[in-house]
Design brief:
It is built from 17 helices and 8 strands. By secondary structure, it is an alpha/beta fold.
């Protein structure tokens, strides 16, 4: 009886996937003309609009319908795995990451990436050992610094808004100390308890934090140990509250309280702040360069085409090529409020908030000025996935929390983190 139920469930699941995929792996286009493509993604209704506009324009130009299926975020990766096993993959997907279960069934996008007319940032692209490009980032996110502009103005303290005039961490902390003292704020800074934001800090300090060697190892040195200790020392309940990294207090809420001078987070906060901060003025400031101008650049999504057949694979690649044409891509990132992976675009974001407009403009400059190490983790993660390796639950936040609490040294913290990485992706 249980076996019968499992068989019915399996049949039902495959049927559901077939409905989701439409004619992705069969029907019209397997041996001739493709008249419909299926495009899976997971995004907000606001950001779906940019893709719908792109699909409408593509159909108008080519006659090929692009059917967009917007799936729940938590379910997209699982659906892709199931559909790969059922041989019913969509034609195109904007995936959160690359999965070894289906990475071998993808279209090679190298020619789109290498087309200089597209202006795609080569530092963002991961290739396998044969030079194949499995995916192209749909957009990027970047870490950076926000300030309580009202507090800075009240204290009469200036802050840089151009990466070319970036301050050092010491200069930033001196300025934040003065603002805190003059305004009665509680903390100089809050910092997302995230491995990504820690990498950004460590990169700005000129370290090679968590850079993998060809033998799979993640070496550390005294400079890296010292930089990590400097970060931990800021968590002293004066410069920064210990509670964010040691017990999960929300840094976003702390900054919105108006009692924090600055917040190190990322570009995604700009839209949130524009809508939800009404008690004070906020602004983006240049990320400290000490001495390296760096950030942490991650992919907002990964555009992938599937080789469901020679004909369908070619049709999927043609649509992706259309997507990354600079004119079309500029419209997409403008509508969706994306940071682009292409340079030289004319983008005017439709934000009502001037602070949000200025923030996005600064982040674009930050990315252009950033050292290539800034995108090293995103590229490595894609390469690990293609190789069938998974990082699992990153221990960085928990281990740094122990360092802040005085339970272990910076060297011991790094040793534990690097050992974990070497065991999982070495």
């Amino acid at each position: 009886m249980k076996s019968s139920k499992r068989m019915l469930a399996l049949v039902g699941g495959i049927a559901a996937l077939a409905l989701l995929s439409g004619c992705a792996s069969g029907g019209s286009g397997d041996g001739g003309k493709v008249d419909e493509l299926t495009f899976w993604l997971s995004t907000s209704s606001a950001q779906e609009k940019g893709y719908q506009d792109l699909a409408t324009a593509y159909e108008k130009q080519t006659g090929v319908t692009v059917k967009i299926v917007n799936l729940p975020y938590d379910g997209l990766q699982a659906k892709l795995r199931e559909s790969a096993q059922a041989n019913s993959l969509p034609d195109v997907v904007r995936a959160a990451g690359i999965d070894p279960i289906w990475s071998g069934k993808t279209v090679d996008l190298a020619s789109i990436v290498s087309d200089k007319a597209n202006g795609i940032d080569q530092d963002l692209i991961a290739k396998d050992k044969d030079g194949k490009v499995t995916s192209i980032p749909s957009d990027v996110t970047a870490a950076g610094l926000f300030v309580n502009k009202s507090l800075f103005d009240k204290a009469g303290v200036a802050y840089p808004t151009d990466p070319a005039k970036a301050w050092t961490w010491s200069e930033f902390l001196d300025a934040a100390d003065k603002v805190k003292a003059d305004t009665g704020a509680k903390y100089d800074l809050v910092f997302d308890s995230s491995p990504s934001r820690l990498r950004a800090y460590m990169f700005t300090k000129g370290t090679d934090f968590m850079q993998q060697e060809k033998d799979g190892s993640f070496p550390t040195d005294a400079k890296t140990v010292d930089a990590l200790q400097d970060f931990a020392d800021m968590n002293d309940d004066s410069v920064m509250p210990k509670s964010v990294w040691t017990s999960g207090q929300d840094p976003n809420a702390l900054f919105k309280s108006g009692q924090v001078v600055a917040y190190f987070s990322g570009v995604w906060q700009s839209s949130d702040f524009a809508s939800n901060i009404t008690d004070f003025d906020w602004a983006s400031a240049a990320t400290p360069a000490d001495p390296t101008h760096a950030t942490e650049i991650n992919y907002g999504g990964n555009i992938v085409g599937f080789e469901n057949s020679d004909t369908r694979g070619a049709a999927a690649k043609k649509f992706i090529d259309y997507m990354y044409d600079p004119t079309n891509y500029a419209k997409l990132v403008t509508t969706n409020g994306f940071l682009p992976v292409e340079s030289g675009l004319d983008i005017t974001y439709p934000f009502k908030s001037q602070a949000a407009k200025d923030s996005f403009a600064l982040y674009q400059k930050e990315i252009e000025a950033a050292d290539p190490i800034s995108s090293s983790y995103a590229k490595a993660a894609s390469e690990w996935a293609v190789e069938g390796k998974e990082i699992g639950t990153d221990p960085t936040t928990a281990e740094v929390g122990k360092l802040i609490n005085g339970q272990q040294s910076a060297k011991e913290t790094l040793d534990t983190i690097t050992k974990y990485y070497e065991e999982h992706v070495g």
